[in-house]
Amino acid sequence: MGNFEEKLANLGVTLPDAPAPAANYVPYVQVGDMLYVSGQISKDGDRLITGKLGDDMDTPAGAEAAKVCAIALLAQVKAACGGDLDRLKRVVKLTGFVNSTADFSEQPQVINGASDFLGEALGETGKHARAAVSAASLPFGVAVEIDGVFQIG
User: What is the 8-class DSSP label of residue 153?
Assistant: First the structure.
């Protein structure tokens, strides 16, 4: 087990198999040392984490959904790196989409669920630029979707 996966295990996290695409796209594209990972939805195993922030879901639950997205992103990175997550050099940027009501304004706190987790699990490697935006709806009614850009070696 590599260094990053050991840190994840210490946090009680085992990366799942990389989720298969749900439509006509690929899970990631590598260009040089940059890896562009498609949006990962808040799906924990077979369970979709659904809800609308500001309506039937609170900010802490949304942050937990964002963490689940971050775990799926790392699973995609691991798959792209031939199973060696230690090839990850940097989390460059995340874009987080939050299924929320028109008056909900805590999108940054929701996406912190992913950002905080990546920082804790990856240290300096996990520090990234990001955007956190509201969406009127997301696929399958999920609470959060996050895509990412990563540098790999």
Answer: -
Which pair of tokens denotes residue 114?
Answer: 């992913």
* This prediction's pTM: 0.96
Query: Count of residues for the chain?
Result: 153
Helix and strand counts by DSSP (H, E) for the chain: 3, 7
Both structure tokens of 33: 């040392």
Could you tell me the residue ranges of all domains in the chain?
Answer: 3-152
Residue of 66, 70, 53, 59 whose CA lies nearest to 150: 70
Candidates 78, 114, 74, 113; CA nearest to 94 is 114
CATH number listed for the domain at residues 3-152: 3.30.1330.40
**pLDDT at residue 19, rounded to an integer:** 86
Q: Does residue 62 sit in helix, strand or coil?
A: helix
pLDDT of residue 152: 97
In order, the DSSP letters of 85-152 are: GGGEEEEEEEEEEEEB-TT---HHHHHHHHHHHHHHHHGGGG--EEEEEEES--GGGBSEEEEEEEEE
